[in-house]
Amino acid sequence: MTGTPAIEPFGPKPKRLFDPARIGVYAFLIITALYFLFPLYVVIITSFKDLDAIRDGNIFWPQLKYGVITTTDPAGNIVTRQAEWWHPWYRAWFEVCTGLECKGISPNFWNSVIITIPSVIVSIAVAITTGYALANWPFRFSEGFFTVLIVGSFIPYQVLLYPMVLLTKNMGIYSTLSAVIFVHTVFGLPILTLLFRNYFASLPVELFKAARVDGAGFWRILLQVFLPMSLPILTVAVILQVTGIWNDFLFGVVFAGLPNYPMTVKLNNIFTSTFGVKEYNVEMAATLLTGAIPLAIYFLSGRYFVRGIAAGAVKG
Question: What is the pTM of this model?
Answer without folding.
Answer: 0.79
